[in-house]
Sequence to fold (271 residues):
Amino acid sequence: MAEQSPEFAGLAALVTGGASGIGLATARLLAARGARVAVLDRVEPDRVEPDRVRPDREAPDMYPVIADVTDDTAVRAAVAEAARMLDGRLDILVNNAGIGAAGTVEDNHDDEWHRVLDVNVLGMVRTTRAALPLLRRAARERGQAAIVNTCSVAAIAGLPQRALYSASKGAVYALTLAMAADHVAEGIRVNCVHPGTADTPWVSRLLEAAPDPAAERAALNARQPMGRLVTADEVAAAIAYLASPLASATTGTALAVDGGMQGLRIRPRTT
Fold:
């Protein structure tokens, strides 16, 4: 039997917010499955932590580019640079860059609202806008291209102390559906993932800032029916599915990776 090519062999991907957490896990998974991957982040490669992406022999098919997604000029330059590194092509865009926010609608001032929406929503707009010509060309040449947005269960479930974050992710969900409708005729599929509370650097910082980090972690674990936080690798696997050519009939879809938060209503666990 002939050996099969890796799932993403010959494809080029750009992952934003790819220097840590879900973005890094996604970039590594796509590269492991055969893709050449550019990683866009605002972190300089020589300043990242040991578990973050760097251009060395451990990840020969991952290429870092530097930009802040709130800067349109920088984003356009970074996407162009990524395309050069990827031999002028781009088949997959993963819009993962985002920031968190805690508090009720009273707790965040206007500047914070503007900042979070600028990163979480307009950051996706800027990157997609810059990447669309490349994605269109990929769709014409290969029959399809894919965009996957990192959304959140907070977009569709009312979570306490997450008013601003939920509003931004609700916008991402609506944006995903609108983009899917706009670009389906061009052969560009647009989907999103809805992670539950994931074990990422941002959640770790929230836990560290809590009065009782152990109790807060236990509460977050208990909030998800599976009884634990979602891992970055689990979210990455969902993103890879939606980005894959094997999902060629899937567009306008939100894939939950939330430990059952979205659909399950179970009795409290007893000890």
Q: What stands out?
A: The mean pLDDT is 89. The longest helix spans residues 110-142.
